[in-house]
Amino acid sequence: MSQTPIQRATQLREQLERAAEAYYNRDEQLIPDAEYDALLRELEALEAEHPQLKAEDSISGRIGGRASGRFAEVTHALPMLSLGNAFSEGEVADFVRRISERLDLAECDLAFSAEPKLDGLAISLRYEDGVFVQGATRGDGSTGEDVTANLRTIGDIPQQLTGSGWPALLEVRGEVYMSRADFEACNAQARASGGKVLANPRNAAAGTLRQLDARVVAQRRLSFFAYATGVVEGGQLPDTHAGTLAVLQRWGFPVSDLCQVVHGLDGLLGYYQRIGQARDRLAFDIDGVVYKLDDKAGQQAMGFVARAPRWAIAHKFPAQEQTTTVEDIEIQIGRTGAATPVARLAPVQVAGVVVTNATLHNADQIARLDVRIGDSVIVRRAGDVIPEVVSVRLELRPPATTPWLMPQACPVCGAELVREEGMAVWRCSGELSCPAQRKEAIAHFASRKAMDIDGLGEKFIEVLVDSGLVRSVADLYAIDRDTLLKLKLILDAADVEAYVAALQPHLLPLNSGQALAQLLALSAADDWRARALALPVQVAWADKKIATRWADNLVAAIDASRRTTLARLLFALGIEHVGEATAKTLAQWFGDLELIRQLPWPLFKQVPDIGGEVARSIGHFFDQSGNQAAIDALLAGGVSVTDAHPPSARLHAGLGLAPLLVACEIPGITQKRAEALAAVVADMAALVDAEPAQLLASGLPATVVAGLTQWLEQGDNAALLLRAAQAQARLAALLPEEDPSAAGPLDGQTVVLTGTLSRLGRETAKAWLEQFGAKVAGSVSKKTSFVIAGSEAGSKLAKAQELGVPVWDEEQLLAWLAQQGVVL
Ligand code: IVH
C-alpha cells in the first residue's frame, strides 16, 4: 500500500532528524550528503504542496544541529544562515534571473563573488578592539557552542588583528576545515594506534573542534578560511563582499585565493567548471562553489527566505560519497607484503567516476566498521585518494550475513599471512618469492622517482614476472628488444591463436613448425601469456610489419637508468619506510652505497631525521642476504652510482662510545648514563665483557646495570653492539676532517615554512634547509630569519609581512638550492 503524504512526511522527518542528530552531535554520518539533500528536497516539496503538513519545528526550516550541551551556549547576535542549493545549471539560471528581476539590472551586469564551498564547519569569531575574544559554532543558526579555547589552537585564526582600521566590534565568519594531507596523517595515526578513524575531513574537523580537551585540537591540525562577517560596530566595512574579503585578508584572516569576482550566468558557470576541474588537486575538500551577489546594497534589497539569503546560493558538485553494495572482499598484496583488504563493489558513480573497488585499509578497520559481504556501504572518493569504504548502512543489511575474517594464507603465493605484534597490518610472509610482492617491487624500482624506466608498464611487468624471465630487479637489465616485441604481441592478442597469427610473419622457418606446435599447446592454459613468453621461439622481425621504435626506446631507457644517483637507487630498492626524502637524506649523509649496505641499524640513527623505526628497517633490509645478492646483481648488471662522495663531516658528532650506546636504544640508557658508562670502559668490546662490578664503578644505579647486563645476554644484542662499534670505526676513518669554518650557509638562521610547496613538499624543503644549517621553526617571530611561503599561505605569511620578515616563494627557494648545487 502506498503511503499518504502525511505518512511520508513523517517518515522523511524521522529519517532526516536521525541523520542530523548523528551528524551534528556525534560527528557521524548515517547517509551520504547527496541522499540527505534529496530527502530534504522531497520533504520541502511535500510541505509546499500540502501546507497543512508543515509542522511547527520541521527540520526543513532549521539550520544545522542543536547544541550538544557539552559547551557553553553562545547566542548569535546576527543569525548564522545556511545557503540554498543549486544542483543544475537551470537552478543557477533561476537564481540569477530572480536577482536581475528584483533589482531591475541586466543579468550580465550582476557582479558576484564566486568562492569555493569548503567542506568543514561554520564558525563565528568575535574580535573586540582587534583582539579575539570568543568563537562559536553555528549550532542551529541562532545558538551555537562556545569553542573559543579550541579555536585558539588553530594557527590560521589571528589572536590579534594586524594592520589597522578594523571596527571596534567585528564578527568574522568562515569555515574550519582539515586539509586532505592532515586528514590522511590523522587517520594513518589512528589506524596505527587503534584510535578512532574518521570518515572524512569534514567529520574530522567537526569532531576535533568539539573535543573538550584543547590539547587534542592542537595536535590535529585544523585550518580556517574566512568568507563572511557578522555583527560590525564602531567602524565600517567596504560596500562590496569582495572588498570585505580583501580587508579581512589584510587584517590577518586567510581568505581562499580561489575567490573571484565574476559577472552574469556565464561567469558563474565558467567558474564552476574551472573549480570543478581543479577540485581533485586542491589541498582540501570542497563540495561545491558559492555565488554571492557582490554589492551589499543589492544583498539588502534581496533579503532572506526562511534559512538562507536570496542573494547567495551554493552550486554543488557531484557527491563524493555514494551508497553501493559490497560484492566481495579480496586481499591485495603490496610491495612490502602488506595485505590490504579491498571491497569489490557494485559499480557506482562517485564524483564523476565509476568506482568498482574501494580500500578497506586493514582487518581492524573492517572489524571496526563491521563490513560484510552483501552490505550496503557508503564509499567515498575525494581528490587523488583511493576510494574507500567509510561506513556500513546497517539498516540496509540483508539477513544471514556473517562477519568477515582475515584469510590465513596469501591469495597469491599461499604463504602464511602474519601480523607483527602491535601492528594493524597483516603481511604475506612469502617476501620476494611471492609474485605479487615481486611485481610491486619491480614496478616501484622502475617508477619515475626511482630508476625512471619510462615505458615499463604494469602489464609488461606482470607477464615478465609470471614468465620467470624477471625474477628480481636486476633481471630488468637483461631484457632485450626481442622479448619486448614478443611481449607486446602477447599483450595485444586475445588468445594464443591470435598471438600465433601475429607472430607468424616474423618466425624463422627453421624452427617455426615446432615453435608453433609448442605455442598452440598452450591454448587451454589460463597463464598462456607468461608461458608463451618463456618459450624460446626464434624470430627475425620483419620491420615493416611491426612497430619497433618504442622497443628500441625502452631498451635505451633501461640502459640509461643504469647510471643513477645514490638517492634514486636507495629509494628504488623499496626499503620499508624509506621514501624519497629519506633516501636523499641517506645519500647526503653517507654518500656511498658500499658504506651504507654494511652499516648496522644504530649507525643510521646518527642522522637527525632518522628515528629508530626507520633505522631498524634500513638495517634489516641490508641484513637480508637476498637483498645483498640483489644489489650485487644490479652492480653486475652495470648499474652504477654517479654521485658517490665521502660521508658528511657532520657525522663526527655521533662518533664515540656514548652516542653509539644511546643509538642502540638500550632500555634505561640515557645520554648521561651512556657517558658515565663510556668513562669506565676502554671500548665496546670491554663493555660487552665487563663484570657488573666494573660497570657499577660508573656510578649507575644497580638496577640499571642489572638491566644492561640482562639486555646484553638477550638475543644478538652483544653482537649488535660489537658490529656497530666496528662499523663506527670504519666510518670514522672515512670522515673528512671536521672544518669549523665549513659551517652551513644557513647556520644560525631560523626559517618558517608555510602554505603548500607544490614542487618540493614541506618535508623535503625542511630536510634541505636543515642540511644547510638552518633551524626550521613552526611559528613566525621577530627572530625568524625568513619565511618560505607556498600557495595558500595564510596567517604566518601575514605575520611575516607585518614584522617585516623577508619572504621567499617556492621558486626562490628552488633557485637558491640550485645555486648551492642541489639537483632535485
Ligand atoms: S556563506 C549567508 N561561503 O556552507 C551566507 N558558506 O551550506 C552564509 N560554506 O554554513 C554562508 N564555504 O558552513 C559561505 N565560501 C563560503 C562557504 C560557505 C562553505 C558552508 C558554511 C555554510 C554552509 C551552507
Automatic annotation (TrEMBL):
Primary enzyme class: ligase
Q: What is this protein called?
A: DNA ligase
Q: Name one GO biological process term.
A: DNA repair
List, alphabetically, the InterPro entries matched.
Answer: BRCT_dom, BRCT_dom_sf, DisA/LigA_HHH, DNA_ligase, DNA_ligase_AS, DNAligase_adenylation, DNAligase_N, Hlx-hairpin-Hlx_DNA-bd_motif
Q: Which residues bind NAD(+)?
A: D33, A34, E35, Y36, D37, S82, L83, E115, R138, E175, K292, K316
Residue spans making up a coiled coil are 6-56
| Organism in which the protein naturally occurs | Stenotrophomonas koreensis
Name the positions where Zn(2+) binds: C410, C413, C434
